[in-house]
Amino acid sequence: MPKPLSPETVQIVKASIPALAARGTDITKSMYARLFRDNHIRGLFNHANQGEGGSQVNALAAAILAYAQNIDNLGVLVPVVERIAHKHIGYHILPDHYPYVAKALLAAIEDVLGDAATPQLLNAWGEAYWFLADMLKEREAEIRSELLNRSGGWDGWRDFVIDSKVRESDVVTSFVLKPKDGRRVARHKPGQYLTLRFKLENGLEVKRNYSISSGPNDGFYRISVKREAQGQGGSRYLHDKATVGMPLSATPPAGDFYLPEAPKAPVVLLSGGVGLTPMVSILETIAEEHPNLETHFVHGALNSATHAMDQHVRELANAHGKIKISSFYSAPSSEDAVGLSHDFDGFITAEWLRKHTPIDNAEFYLCGPKPFLRSLVPALAREGVSSERVHYEFFGPSDELIAA
């Protein structure tokens, strides 16, 4: 554990909250601009999160503000540190990279706040930054050690090839990835993701996180990717151009969203769109390892054209016996019909969950786009589901303080 923050630092950081609330995005925008002057550091980041809408700039600004607001209540940092540490494992961010961020952040604060960025303020934020950085480095070292000691484990980037490619719906395609060296892979925790690195046709190297959609095994990972019309084209390249045998690289499985090894309470898996990918991994694990676990797989899609892996999910449920499948279509096509293509029209609601799932004692796992989570997470809280029983994974930038 790093050395505790001094009382003076805590006081100065808290006093900077109004300035961070007013100018936080200006600070993070300036910080990223400084970081990206160094091609080595620039190459560490997922630039899909840096562009449209300034999502990463805004997320980082919100995270810095939240850190300042909780600087004297550091217990709230534990889940945040865990999430960031796993992100850093995925992007292979190392202790040597932290000084670059410290330099850019402090220079950005000085640049944006001007005369208000006194030496005392900069020193306090320097101490606060390194306190958090040391917490992260300690946790990342623990995760790397555990991964290296796991059968099939590795550190950093490892060469893989696409072994097979399967169209799951009009918008989702699955890719089975096997290591180029033919050796074992580390068994992931069901719900975790892989970080991939590959080159587009124009030579641009991209890095992307994709949830693993297969259950843990020794030989391969499966990812199921939605083709996105916007962005740099990583998903479009995989859908349209990637072929069996194509090489790519991956860091070890990471992520703090996963099913525990010995679940004791009923499980409700809630997903929207391509958010079903980690849920399928969890469902395969339950079907294989937990024959007596009551499980509810509840999925929302637009219609049958976009609904991926439904037959596979229902086969798992039929073989297991205690898995119940419920599917919702929010925009059913003329060919769709309740009872045939899907189970319900409309959206998943907390009221429906109250009637059809063991809401008072189940563990809830959610994954999907932000509107999906913004609707259901607060709704579950209003139904009396404690935050300890609600686990969720989301796509895109979050509250990562040193985010790739």
Task: Characterise the protein shown here.
With 404 residues, the protein is of the alpha/beta class. The chain folds into 3 domains: 7-149, Globin-like (Orthogonal Bundle), CATH 1.10.490.10; 158-250, Elongation Factor Tu (Ef-tu), domain 3 (Beta Barrel); 267-394, 3-Layer(aba) Sandwich (Rossmann fold), CATH 3.40.50.80. It contains 12 helices and 12 strands. The strands form 2 sheets. Strands 4-3-6-1-2-5 form a 6-stranded antiparallel beta sheet. Strands 10-9-8-7-11-12 form a 6-stranded parallel beta sheet, with helices on both faces. The two termini are 24 Å apart.
Number of helices: 12
Cα end-to-end separation: 24 Å
Note the beta-strand portion: 15-25%
Q: Give helix and strand order, one letter per element, not per position.
A: HHHHHHHEEEEEHEEHEHEEHEHE
Question: How many β-strands, per DSSP?
Answer: 12
Number of domain units: 3
Q: Give the overall shape.
A: globular
CATH topology description of the largest domain: Globin-like
CATH architecture type of the largest domain = Orthogonal Bundle
CATH class wording of the largest domain: Mainly Alpha
Rg from Cα: 22 Å
* Helical coverage, percent range: 25-40%
User: Overall mean pLDDT score?
Assistant: 93
CATH superfamily of the largest domain: Globins
**Low-confidence stretches at least 5 residues in length (pLDDT < 50)?**
399-404
User: Sheet bearing the most strands, described?
Assistant: 6 strands, antiparallel
Strand order across the biggest sheet? 4-3-6-1-2-5
Structural class: alpha/beta
